[in-house]
Input
Amino acid sequence: MVTAGVEWVVEETIAVREAAQIPQQRGEELLDHAVRYAEERHWDVFPGTWLEAAEGRDLCSCGDANCALPGAHAAGSDWSSQATGSATATRRMWGKNPKASILLPTGRTFDALDVPESAGFLALARMERMELPLGPVTRTPDRRMLFFVLPGAAAKIPDLVRGLGWVPSSLDLTALGEGHYVAAPPTRIGGRGAVQWACRPTSANRWLPDAVELVSPLAYACGQEAAAARARRA
Output
């Protein structure tokens, strides 16, 4: 299943070039972004924790000095009931706390396929050549990429991966569905940086692809990533 050599080098070069072209999101309030997600994309949104400057660094409002996702996680266990697709309710929530992170529940209007950043850029290059439909894609400061697809992907992915000849546990490819959420741009995660769009939401990608359309290039890219990791350890 895994090929190497010239193809890997070429696609890796494309991936690096693509990474350098990702725009920064600056100059807009979190409220503006949250309202656009609800109003223009019809995505449910809810406010999460936020960052507070203390002792020369940004700490999470949750109060945990060792928070794994400072300023970018749900503020309480009732987050699912808070999520709304109403622009009016969104303005009200962020009006109370303009610094709150923007979180999007998965399993409603979309699921998210989560892969390592290097595999994500490799997959994007292949998808472009294959002219596959593509939805919005985010890139996190933790070097992950999330591909937005139609709901239901979380239940399909293991069987789809097995159908391609891969063992699901051997690939760093997971699907986030009901009961999960993702941070949306331009949410900052501590001092690591902000979540960004690798592929922005546009009118052209309003209709999301099904996971079955993207799983092959994603599985291939994750397989390349796993092979490279094994080679480095050898």
About this structure: The two ends are 20 Å apart (CA to CA). The CA atoms of residues 59 and 139 lie 22 Å apart. The chain is about 40% helix and 15% strand. Helices lie at 6-20, 30-40, 79-82, 87-96, 117-130, 153-163, 211-233.
